[in-house]
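Dear support,

I submitted the protein below through the web form. The confirmation email said the job was done, but the results page showed an empty box. After a refresh the structure appeared. I'm attaching both so you can tell me whether what I see now is the final result or a partial one.
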Amino acid sequence: MNALEAVRARQSWSKVTEEAPSREELLHLVAAAGRVADHSSLQPWRLIELRGADREVLGAAIAKAQGDDSPSAKPLRAPLLIAVVASYRKSDKVPRWEQEAVASGVAHVLSLLLDEAGWGVIWRTGHYTRAKAVAKAHGLGRNEELLGWLYVGGKPAGKKPGRRKPVDARKLVTRMPKKAKKK
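What the results page shows now:
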């Protein structure tokens, strides 16, 4: 499968099995995903691997952020969660928004690589990604923001991924406007 076929075939998997890639497989894919365009090679990102009881800690942090009494079961929907963190670097050349774009790019490329490797993946976010309790649970520094989690697991046999509408590129690709006439 070439890159175009892999991208066109990618789907989000909201339900996955309890199988997950090994740490070594994950590290191999992260090394490739980290090759995204990165102005000044700042590497303004990091990933946090959550497995087993780590997911329960996250569930408690989400509950605290939402003012709930019982832990959220959301992190238990997949055996592996990969927290995507924008880890901003001081730079006179690369603004904060561009650094966040790099972190997002790494997450997206990683999701494509995981999918191509046969794993079910969905990128989940929520208003609590910016909550103090959730940031503390992840050990985030002052210069970091959580962008969400990749939920990763096995693709269930006989199940289909979520549906995606086709993209009408003609509506989304425009040309530069012609110069306005002077009055």
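Response: this is the final, complete result; the empty box was a page-load delay. Strands lie at 45-51, 80-87, 119-124, 144-154.
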